[in-house]
Amino acid sequence: MNGRTRPLPSVVREFDCTGGTIIAYGHDTYTEPLRTDTTDYYQNPLDMDGVSHCSRDVTMTRATIERDPDLYRHRSMSNVITLYDIPSRDIKDNAWSPNTWKTRFSLNYKGLPYKTVWVEYPDIARVCQEIGAEPTSTSEYDTPKYTLPVIYDPSTKTVLAESAKIARYLDETYPDTPVLIPRGSSALHAAFQYAFAQMVSQPALPLMLPATNNILNPSSEAFYRRTRESWFGKLEDWSPPGPIREKHWEELRAALARVAGWMALDDEDKPFFMGDTICYADITIASILVWMKRVLGPKSQEWARVKTWDGGKWGSFMQAFDKYEMVL
Ligand SMILES: N[C@@H](CCC(=O)N[C@@H](CS)C(=O)NCC(=O)O)C(=O)O
To answer: Which of 147, 150, 166 to mutate to test the pocket of ligand 1 (most atoms within 8 A of CB)?
Structure first.
């Protein structure tokens, strides 16, 4: 074993599966030699080959568990859910994708342990077919379209694609965890998902897709550029700095203001969609916002601007998600 290592502290040892064994499918690999410059990197007990399979997440995991051990009451050594997600070349813990964050936030909010398998864009269809995940839609070429997130839950031997279906599955399968979609609100949630996608996700695309392309690994970057440019032309021309980009920001600001207005209808001060408790509609919003924060940069001027909108609502909204913003 090269590099300085030490065993995981006992609290994390119970989560060896969450301690950072990250398998990379695809053309780019994420295995990296153990870091020697910090004691915050721990030897993953599953690593027998002298290489740490990306232990970057352990620090955050350990801190989070120590802060809030109840989050992980469903822990077990081997029977954990696998979340299939798309990696990045320079986001701190890889995770950036808004749709997969819906499932990641859902799992984190429920305190269900899981491990992440990273899949590059060109490999998504093959990996989904190999593990038996259904396509989620039909592509522009009338072929089945496979997307992430996908989960595999070994305790029920279930493979499931599509973030909202996964949320419903998690609620049904783990009824003693915090509820994502309260009973009786499935229809409202579905309507909200649709409205939010049209109203907020769509105007975010020209601002966010070119920036997203820049944080992908080479094989995904080439795939993303080719597929997205077939929709609207060269990515760099989608939202160039200046009046066009300002107009896009204004559209997004107005869309989020409308959502803030909906949320204030019951009570000006309620932080979340259904009051004081997070539900899946909030997770949907947080997943778009975390994408913006991570891809534009948590310290970027653009993200700073979003946080101030609606009297600072979105900044404090995202602060409430800090403790669920982890990558296992
Ligand atoms: N409705 C799906 C959408 C999932 C989705 O579009 N995922 C993107 C990543 S953010 C994807 O896998 N795209 C594959 C591709 O573009 O080929 C869900 O919510 O799960």
So the answer is: 147
